[in-house]
């Protein structure tokens, strides 16, 4: 069998390589495999996760900087001193746990998709997680909008009623993003089979 000149040069190069060169190439391949895979953002999965994280960060900034509320009645003792309890505490905990908890989980998943090994994506877990997140963000957004569109807003929150409505709308938008993520994960799960 007659080899062409480029093929012979390749064989000669492979035969004359030293062990150090092979180690260097192996190390380079290892570094390349440990680098971030930014192609995740070009896929629907990565784009939706990034959007969910960004909207959650914006919502937390609005909540913190404007002192927004999820509404509800304050509980007070006989002297009028505010105590923990009442629907205010329930609504506040529901909203803040939704924001903080799902931000932590979404950010962790996004980082694992970027830096993790192939096979990190667990479809059933995504379905479950996105479904719960969708419901919680819809509930939190509805609580905020119900409060800021009602006739009675506590005086401390009246100045920020417009910001409160924006906050509620962003929570609902995040719920829609999680719905889209759920549908994408569902279609990926059952169309792949």
TrEMBL record:
Keywords on record: Membrane, Transmembrane, Transmembrane helix
GO CC annotation terms, alphabetical: plasma membrane
Highest taxon of the lineage: Eukaryota
Annotated InterPro entries: Ssk (IPR038976)
GO annotation, biological process: septate junction assembly
Transmembrane segments: 40-63, 92-115, 127-148, 160-180
UniProt-recorded name of the protein: Protein snakeskin
The species this protein was found in: Artemia franciscana (Brine shrimp)
């Amino acid at each position: 069998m007659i080899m062409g000149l480029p093929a012979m040069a390749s064989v000669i190069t492979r035969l004359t390589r030293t062990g150090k060169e092979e180690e260097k190439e192996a190390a380079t391949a290892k570094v390349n495999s440990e680098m971030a895979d930014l192609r995740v953002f070009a896929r629907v999965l990565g784009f939706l996760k990034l959007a969910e994280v960004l909207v959650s960060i914006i919502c937390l900034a609005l909540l913190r900087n404007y002192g927004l509320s999820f509404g509800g009645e304050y509980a007070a003792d006989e002297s009028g001193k505010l105590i923990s309890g009442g629907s205010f505490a329930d609504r506040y905990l529901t909203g803040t746990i939704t924001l903080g908890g799902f931000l932590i989980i979404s950010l962790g998943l996004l980082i694992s998709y970027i830096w993790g090994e192939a096979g990190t994506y667990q479809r059933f877990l995504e379905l479950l997680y996105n479904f719960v997140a969708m419901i919680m963000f819809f509930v939190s957004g509805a609580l905020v909008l119900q409060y800021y569109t009602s006739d009675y807003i506590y005086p401390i929150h009246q100045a920020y009623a417009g910001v409160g409505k924006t906050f509620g709308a962003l929570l609902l938008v995040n719920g829609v993003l999680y719905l889209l993520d759920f549908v994408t994960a569902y279609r990926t799960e059952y169309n792949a089979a």
